[in-house]
Amino acid sequence: MEVPACAGMTVPPFIRMTVNLLGVLARISYAAFMRETTDEQLMRQYAKGNAQAFDQLYARHRGALYRYFRRQVNDEATANDLYQGVWEKIIHARKKYRPSSPFTAWMYRIAHNHLVDHYRRSKPVTHIEMDTLSDQKAEPGEQAINEQQRELLQENIAVLPAEQRNTLLLKLETGLKMEEIASVTGTSRETVKSRLRYAVDKLKRSLVE
Amino acid sequence: MNSIHNNGPDDKLLNDDIEKLDQAYQQLSSEEPPELLDQAILSSAHRAVEKNDHWLDFGWIHGLTTAVVVVLAVSIILTQRQPVDLDENGLSPADVRSLGQTRKAESEMSGKMREQRVDDLRANKSMLAEDALLEEKIMRANAPVEVMAASPAVAEFADEPVASGAGEIEIDAVKKDADKITVARSSLSAEDVQLQAILMLKQAGDDSWKTELKIFIENHPDYPIPEELKN
User: Fold this and answer.
1) Residue B13's closest CA among A193, A44, A86?
2) Interface of B with A in 20-79 (CB under 8 A)
3) pLDDT tens figures, B47-72
4) What are the pLDDT digits (tens) for A180-193?
5) N or C: less crowded end of chain B, CB within 10 Å?
6) Across the interface, do B52 and A49 touch by the CB < 8 Å criterion?
7) H-helix segments, chain B
8) How far is A91 from chain B (nearest CA, A)?
9) Smallest CA–CA separation between A55 and chain B, in Å?
10) Distance from A110 to chain B by nearest Cα, in Å?
11) What ipTM was predicted for this assembly?
């Protein structure tokens, strides 16, 4: 928000500085407002045509959603396709979104259905090549035992049955309640609980061993 | 990251395990989507909204069009379903209008018929005059035959029809005329005949024509009276 310089007209430095300061303050307050805005409000704003609202929403959820796919399918390209496909669906369905349901649950319901469609199109992944799971490079300086544990955890998550892995990742990545996970996956709360219990027990056993 | 939602001791145990697992999970390498993928998704989102903006520019037209269509449809339905106000005779305005048109047409028709009847009467009058003339001719035509029959000299010819001559030709012509008049008379109505009789009474100087006319008017109040009988 720079003060425009008109030909043949000199703007006093004081006014120029004041206007620039006001611009900076406006940007800071807008950013603060966007930070405080809930996902549901941002999605509504985006549906009304505010592209910046989508930017904010995307920044909030990009990592978790990406990891959700990345750890469901062992192929990075497939994970990228699935991830992009879900966002495309969200963009197209922006006017169908109703703020009565939490945005996160709505988004992961789309993601879950997208993943199920992917499984239906391709062969269901029941066994994952363990070698490919070791491609992740550890951060330098980390302790060897931590690195081993992380790799082990990641490998064990990857070999979980698809439903258990899906439920566990929804829980770990999004923090959704069991009822919300049940709504996302189209199952009952008891089913979610059961899947989580099985997944957690398997991981605990594998980590102890 | 995860909040605990207890619905029983079993849930609490599970949530404790999940919390521990979550702590380990958060230490996993946090993969992020590639930057190119981010840019592609964000530009797609912006494009969708930009297209949407153009669409919104015409959104009010759609609203207005819908409102106009609805108003028109409702007004048509209400007009069709509007209850008909009946007058004291139980007739709707539409019935009254059509009745008025019918009456007007009837009055025009009766006026024409009246004129037609007056014309018919005039024609009848002239026909009656011809009739009288014809009767006179017949009388005249028959007279020589009677005279001839009465004369002993030509008595033998009286039983035979006249074979030739002006008298026979004249009788044929008169008979043809009489047939025409009979046909014309058969087309007249009884009222016309009555009026003709009254007219003849008047012409004959019989005062009873007034009484007859009065009776006729009482019986047929709407029937047109010829000008000759009105005086």
Assistant:
1) A193
2) 21-22, 24-25, 27-34, 37-38, 40-42, 44-46, 48-50, 52-53, 56
3) 998 865 555 556 677 788 999 999 99
4) 899 889 999 999 99
5) C
6) yes
7) 9-26, 35-57, 59-81, 93-150, 166-186, 190-204, 208-219, 227-230
8) 6
9) 7
10) 16
11) 0.70
